[in-house]
Each structure stands twice: as C-alpha cells, then as structure tokens.
Amino acid sequence: MLTRTEHRASRMAGLAALVAIGLALAVPIAVLLSHGGASELSSSQGDYLVQITRFTLLQAGLSTLLSLVFAVPLARALARRPEFVGRRWLLNLFAVPLGLPPLVAALGLIEVWGRNGVANQGLGLLGAETPFSIYGLSGILLAHVFFNLPLAVRLILPALERLPPEYWKTAANLGIGGLPLFRLVEWPAMRRTAASAAGLVFMLCATSFTLVLVLGGGPAATTLEVAIYQALRFDFDPGRAVLLSLIQICMTLVVMLALKLMAATAETGDTKGGSTSRPDVQGGLHALPDAALIGLGGLFVSAPMVAVIVSGLSADLSRLLTDTLFWRAASTSLAIGLAAAALSVVLASFLVRGRYSAGQNPGSPALGLLAGLSGAAGSLTLLVPPVVLGAGWFLMLGGGTGQLLAPLMVIILINALMALPFVMRVLEPAHQNTLERNGRLAVSLGVVGANRLKQIDLPAMLPALATGFVFAVALSLGDLGAIALFGSDRIVTLPWLLYQKLGSYRTADAAGLALLLGAITMALMIVAEKLGTWNGSAYR
Amino acid sequence: MTQQPAIEFDGVVFGMGDLSAEFSFRREAGSVTAILGPSGAGKSTLLNLAAGFLTPASGRIILDGRDITGLSPSDRGISMVFQDNNLFAHLDIRTNIGLGLDPSLKLDTGAWTQVDRALERVGLAGFGKRMPGTLSGGERQRVALARAFARRRPLLLLDEPFDGLGPGLAADMLGLMLEIRAEVGATVLMVTHDPDEADAAADEILFIARGGIAADAAVAGFFERRDLPDLQTYLGSTGNN
C-alpha cells in the first residue's frame, strides 16, 4: 500500500514514462505518415509491395509450420522420457537460441549447412544431387526453425509435464499407448499451448530482420523489414520505406489482435527435471524412436553453436583482440547497451509503479486507462518493429549518416524499447511481491516517500532490477536491427562490425568476432538467469 | 484345505541399500486386505509393484497362478483406483469408462451398453455425456468404480480412494466398493490410513513399516494388539483410538 503523496508521485512517474514511450513511437510514425503522403504508387511498385508482403507471410507461415511439426513430437518424446542422462542439459541448451544474437547463430548455421558445411557433405554421401542451400527461402526457414523449434518445445513440454501422474498410471493400467494415447490424452493437453506457441513463433518470424538480411536478400527472398532497410540504406526511397512500414505495422497489429483473441499465454513454464514417472512407456528397444528424435533435435540445435566455437577458436583471436576497431566497436556496443539498459529499467520501473498505483483504485476510468496503457506499453513496442522505428527517426534526421550523437541516441532509445517488455516481465512480479510484503509495515512505521524507496523498495527489488538490466544489456549487445540503419564509419558496434566482415567475406575474422560476441551475450544471459533464480528464491 | 492364492508376492524386492523394500504375502480370492502403515513406509511401493508401475529387483508376483512379474501393467488383469485424477478431465464420463474396455476406444454397441450399465450400477445413470469437472469428488470416484466394474479384472488395487470425501460419503463408497468386488469376484488390496475404514471393509491387514511387512494378520482384534511398537507409534501419532 502507498500513501496519498506516494500514489500521486507513482502515477506521475507512470504517466511520464507513458508519454515518453508514446512520443518515441508516435514521432517516427508521424514522420513516416507525413512522408507517405508525398509518394505516388506506380503499378510496378505495387507489385513489389505485394510480392514482399506475400513472401513475409509465406516464410513466417512455413517457419511456424515446420517449427511446430517438429516441436510437438520432440516435446512428446521428452515428456515420455523423464529421466535420461543429460536431459536437464538438453533443456538448458534449448534455452540458448532465445538469447543468442541472430547474427552469431546465422554464422553457425552457415558453417554447418553452407555449401561446404558438414550437413551438405553428409547429404552428398547419402547421394543427394543438389546441395541444400543456406541462402534464400530454405536457409531462412532453417534459421527460423533453429530459433523457434527449441522455443516451442520449451513452451509445449510443461503442458505435458503438468498432467497429473495418475493419468500415466491409468494409461498404463488400461493399456492406452501409441496413437490412441496421443489422440486422447497428449494432443488435447498440448493443443492450447501449441496454438499459442504457433502464434508467438509466427509473430517472431514475421518480424525477423537479421536472419533474413544475412540469409535472404534479393527480391525473391526479402521480407518487409529487410525491404525497409534496403529502401532507406541502398535506394534512399523514403516513399517505399513508408509504405512498407505501414504494411508491417498493419500486419503485426492483425497478428497481435489474433493472438489476444486466442488468449495466448505463451509463457515458458517450469520444465521440471522429469519428476513425473511414466509407467505407460516401455524402455529397452522401445525407447529407440524417442532417443533418435531427441538425439537429432539436440544435434540440430547444438551443431551451429559448436560450429561457432570451433571456427571461432581457429580464427586469429589474438590479432582480433589487438585490433583497435574491435575495441572501438566493443566499447560503443557496451556504452549503447548500458545506456539502453538503464533507460529501459527506469521506464519499466515507472510503468510498473504507476500501474500498481493506478490499479489500486479500480473505480476511476482515468486510472483504469493508465493501468491498462502501462501494461500494454510493453507490447506496443512489439507492434512497431525496431527497423520501422529506426526508419521514422532516420527520415527525421535526414539520412543520419553524417551525424554522431543523434543516431546514437536513437539506437539507445530503440534498444531500450526493445528490451522493455522483457524487463517489465521481470520487474512486475518482484514489485508486486515487495509491496505485498512490506507495504503495510512501511506505512505503519512511517517509512514513506524517498525514505521508503531508498530503505525498502529499491533494496528489495535489487535482484530483479539487476536481472532486467543485465538482460537488457545482452539484448542490446546482440542487436543488429537498430544499428543497421545508422551504422557508419563513425558508429560501429560489434554486430555491425561482424555484419561488415561477413559482407566483405573476411570469414575468419567474422568467425572470431562471432565467438566473442556470442560468448559475451551468453555470459550476460547466464548472469541474468542466475540473478533471476536468486531473486526467486529470496522470496520463498 | 489349501486353496490356491489369488495374489502372491514371493520375496519381491524393490530398490537397493537403505531404501530397499521387501514384501512376501499371499491372499485368497475374494479377500479384502487393508494396507496400513506410516507414510513413506512403502504402502504405495507395494501397490505400484502389484500394478506394474515399478519393476522389482528380484522375486515373483503371481496372480491366479500366473507369474505376472514381467508383464506390462495392462496385461496383468488389474483395475486401479487412485485418490484423485482417475478420470481424464477433458474426456466425458462415457469415454473415460469406455477406455477401460478398449484402450483405443473401438467399442461396438454391446460394449457401450456395458458402459451405460456400469454407470447405472454406481447410481450415475444419464451422466455419460458429462465432463468430470462438473461432477463432485464422490461422483468422480463412483465413475472410477464403474470403470473397474465394467473391466471385471481379478485384482482391484485402491490407493486411498475415499480419502477426503468426508466420513459419511466415504462409508457409502466403501459399501459400494464391497458390493462391486463381490459381483466381479475380485480380490482387493486397499491402501488406507484410516483404521476405522480398515475395520469396516477389510478381512485382513498388511501393516507396513520401514520397507517391509511388519504384521500380516486378520483384522479382528488387530488394533488392540500391544506387541507391535511400530503400530503403537502409528496409532498414537495419528490420534486414533
């Protein structure tokens, strides 16, 4: 509970954060709209737009389909085998792509699935005539499955593990197995989660930028986001960029509304260490199909990461580490990451506090609106993808390549907004907990206002704040979306440097950089995760 | 007269070292045995071994003269009722019972009639199309008994089935269980923690303590015994008698 003065302060803070976010979103969109009026649509341009939109939807649909088609049987196999050596490891491995910078993953995928990669050598031995192509639609699909298959598995598996152990005993007792068990018990349990996972995966694939930029390109394999980037960066055709941006916003809006209608609750639940035993499942040779599926899944996800490590280690790391450009990029990345994370955590704290305060007074419609908007602010940033945001600011800054400070601010702002939904998800429960625990006591002791913030709320929320901050730094460090538009000789970040090395076929340098970038972000993710569990256990 | 036992545990060992459990006993057809003992002593382990959810390290389990130790749970001739979650919550009552007759639910009209008759038997005629969530806890346990009734397996395993139903309802259910047992001609092993329930329903007792059978006796006069320290502790700590 809060005092009147504190309520007022909390609501002001929440409102200020909302206004700031609103401006950050509205200004670029207004700029886009004002530019949009100026452009005329020729029929060839119309064809181009239709083609790009169709490809965006097609690749997102196919990516979703492929991810789910493999995730459902894989989640089922993992649920059927609750205890095997390395199960916990495998599930942790499946969490890695979520935090891996897409550019690093793309490099690993190219190592494994490229023309001279292990996969094609294997396919050649098996007698495949045409090698698998990592570029174009097939490569984009492969990369999206690499990122989203593990995500979908981690979303779906808890739905099976949540079922009461008596179900499996009854199934064993009655002899329900194989297809009937899948049809009657397992699929009904997975269906809802699988549907919401599909929605989430579709959203992620429809707005994926980096993977399509690296593996796609060319008119035949370009998505809206990449087309926006190309329109601004190569052709300087603001009109086209604006149209593409508007289509993109409409598309994400429709997808998000559809997700809301499905009441999607795509939360990665607790995947237990397999405490539920499965007496209905036989061991021995019967375990072979499950083992094969789990093994292939693990191989598919781990191979690109191993490839990044192997090729990175064989690169000339010492030369890379003495390169001044590397250190410039690293310090720029770090500075951007720290600033973006700080901004994101401040915005999220204001929103969370304001939302809590406004939510305490359910009667007032104005406060209800404030609470609702503060909650939606996180997803609003998903609605307008970074490249679209960047496009608006890019046009406002008039190309932006010559300047230094303004583009940097924009990059920081975009990265902060990108991290906002994640940071809010960490802060909200911690804040709720703190106030529930200490709220009444603090007010009864008269420890209120700034004193309460300093003595009680901030210390209690420190682990959550740290988790959110570190996570935001990691997210920002791996991002190519915002820097892609503004990157120049003067502003170089690690992903930007890596992208340039890739573009100029400095493969060895790229491999070394990818290893370094991947290692840094992974280390940060692990720190965030550790802080998160510490945070969780501190409240138990 | 030596009758062939309906169920026999012959030196059945589960687990290793300090956590191991060993059971040997035999029961005649149609008998009702209450399995009692402190929690963690191995009551559920015994039941899970009989059901085939756990595999013994050594020993044999024999049902009606047939060694079932290596058989899968569904091939053993066993029906089982748990304390909770006996029914798949997303399938209606008829389907839940029908699965007891054929695991892939390929039932002819005769089988579906059997399902309806089983529902009638437990006093739930007309409940077939309802979902488990719309039934009370007692009604759900009745459905579980109806499934056991329809399956007509020689061994009925009950794992604290009427716990948490309230004393009156539990007594009713116990009566229904005994009737069904008699009509099917099944042998019953029932885990319970309620000495009164054991007194009311069972002929015999298996008292489990520290991973073994501490006492194997008739129910009559069992709870008055003073020669079993484990029983004293058990009864004292539960507050009964």
What is the strand and helix layout of this fold?
The complex is a heterodimer of chains A (540) and B (241).
Chain A: H1 4-36, H2 43-80, H3 87-99, H4 102-113, H5 118-125, H6 137-161, H7 165-174, H8 178-206, H9 210-215, H10 224-233, H11 238-261, H12 288-313, H13 317-321, H14 324-359, H15 365-383, H16 386-396, H17 405-445, H18 450-477, H19 481-486, H20 494-503, H21 507-538
Helix pairs in contact in A: 1-11, 1-14, 1-15, 1-16, 2-6, 2-8, 2-12, 3-6, 4-12, 4-21, 6-8, 8-11, 10-11, 10-16, 11-16, 12-21, 14-15, 14-17, 14-18, 14-20, 15-17, 16-17, 17-18, 18-21, 20-21
Chain B: E1 7-14, E2 21-27, E3 32-36, H1 43-51, E4 58-63, E5 66-67, E6 78-81, H2 93-101, H3 109-121, H4 137-151, E7 155-159, H5 167-184, E8 187-191, H6 195-201, E9 204-209, E10 212-218, H7 229-238
Parallel strand pairs in B: 3-8, 3-9, 6-7, 7-8
Antiparallel strand pairs in B: 1-2, 1-4, 4-5, 9-10
Helix pairs in contact in B: 2-3, 2-4, 3-4, 4-5
Give the strand order of the largest sheet of chain B, numbering strands 1, 2, ... along the chain: 6-7-8-3-9-10
Average pLDDT of chain B, rounded to a whole number, is 89
Q: Let me know the number of strands of chain A.
A: 0
Number of helices of chain B: 7
DSSP E strands of chain B, number? 10
Structural class of chain A: mainly alpha
Helix content of chain B: 25-40%
Low-confidence stretches of chain B: none
| Derived structural class of chain B | alpha/beta
Oligomerization category of the chains in this entry: heterodimer
Largest sheet of chain A: none
Give the helix proportion of chain A (percent range): over 70%
- Put simply, the count of helices of chain A is 21
Structure description:
The complex is a heterodimer of chains A (540) and B (241). In chain A, helix 1 (4-36) packs across helix 16, helix 14 packs across helix 18 (450-477) and helix 15 (365-383) runs antiparallel to helix 17. Chain A starts with a helix and ends with a helix. Chain A is built from 21 helices and no strands. The radius of gyration of chain A is 24 Å and the shape is globular. Chain A has 540 residues and is mainly α. In chain A, 78% of the residues lie in helices and 0% in strands. By secondary structure, chain B is of the alpha/beta class. Helices cover 34% and strands 23% of the residues of chain B. Chain B has helices at 43-51, 93-101, 109-121, 137-151, 167-184, 195-201, 229-238; strands spanning 7-14, 21-27, 32-36, 58-63, 66-67, 78-81, 155-159, 187-191, 204-209, 212-218. Chain B has a six-stranded mixed β-sheet with strand order 6-7-8-3-9-10, sandwiched between helices. A four-stranded antiparallel β-sheet of chain B has the order 2-1-4-5, covered by helices on one side. In chain B, helix 2 (93-101) packs across helix 3, helix 3 crosses helix 4 and helix 4 packs parallel to helix 5 (167-184). The model of chain B has no long low-confidence stretch (mean pLDDT 89). The A-B interface holds A 164-167, 169-170, 172-177, 179-180, 184-185, 188-189, 277, 279-280, 282 and B 48, 51-54, 72-75, 78-80, 82, 84-86, 88, 90-91, 95, 99-100, 103-105.
